[in-house]
Design brief:
alpha/beta, Rossmann fold, 46% helix, 2 domains, 11% strand, 6-stranded parallel beta sheet, globular, Glycosyltransf_28_UgtP, transferase, hexosyltransferase activity, Diacylglyc_glucosyltr_N, glycosyltransferase
Amino acid sequence: MGESPGRVPTAHPDRIAIVSASIGAGHDGAAAELQRRLTAQGIVVDRYDLLDLVPARLGRTARDAYRLMLDRAPWLYQRIYSSTERAGGGGREVRALLRSAENRVLKALHPQTGAVVSTYPGASRVLGNLRLDGRLGIPVLTYLTDFSVHPLWVADGVDVHLAAHAVPAAQARAAGAKDVRVRGPVADPRFQPRDLRQRSLARVRFGLPPLAPLALLVAGSWGVGPVRQAARELRDCGAVVPVVVCGRNTALAAQLRADGIEHVHGWVDDMPALMHAADVLVQNAGGLTTIEAFSAGLPVASYGCIPGHGLTNAEALDQAGVAVWIRHQDQLKDVLDNLIDGPLGLSQRDAGLALFADSPDHGPAAEAVRVLRSGRPLAASPPATRRRTRLRQLAVTTTVACAVWTSAVAAGVATSDEGSTLMHAVSQSLDPDLDSGHAGHGADGHHR
């Protein structure tokens, strides 16, 4: 099924691999829609989860630690995000973690794969390194799932970066990407604008009030962020009735019901129908659900955003004119009224739908096929020699760091004096600003 680590797979004109990561649902959701579109064009598609290709379950350990950080120590995530943003890459432990996956990724690729598409920054780092080392002789494309582009998204060795809009395209170029193409976002085709009849039917189906203005509050598949506070403030502002989707966070759903929030959902399989029932979407991370709302013609507001990419996505979406960023509670009523019944909602609805105005022939999947079949010269460097002893040492460091993250945050010590000291020490070890001997690019997972 795979090649030896030192060989370059032979290109095949009708086979593309997509490498994502099961961190939240956004990266996998984008990968699934790209797969659907590519398959419709007659392309054979192989899907891989990068977390499955990192040795010793380190990828899943890092994912669990990241989730716990968002939930228990968001300040730590903000620190790591900001420090890597300044430095243009991650620390040595992150780089070691990704280096450890390179051989497994190369072995997993079918020998007739003609191109690889990444929907996750860590995967882009791995694939870019393989291209630079001359061990992967086929084009690599990165599909940017976010509207803001952290430098970790831009990996040396990646041939093409695909952006949904001019704003992320400009950020990618500023981060060093050389070939950036604006090809629009991807969303499941079930997300379409609704009419009044569909709105009424959806409200009956989900047991929602037939006439009240409804704000659909989402927080990703993990249900992270200050969701309880946002739900209460939406309810109390008097402009909307909140309908909250908690993803797989059952504890959050129970807490919201205890808070007196009447309409609370866990994981929702038919989000297109629930969006039909709503008048506005309120989001806190800028992930795939935001893109789906644009496709559904639903006005979007960012509020109560999570640290890191939640804040930078809110800013980029606001700059692009597709989603207003509500920064303060006292703005809620006026902005929501304007989104539901005013000109702001009409303009943002049009701007969101305009992202999908081009035909699929001009979308990111079609662009991947064009790159696959272009026969473009591939500039690959000779294979580089690895110092495996150093790699093993760094991988052990990564394991320890992830274990400390997980145990410290899970135990709830992040709010104690001892916990703050411990978490500060971990964040120091991952801060590239304090590691002058390891400047440069690395990778981190974040997501929706």
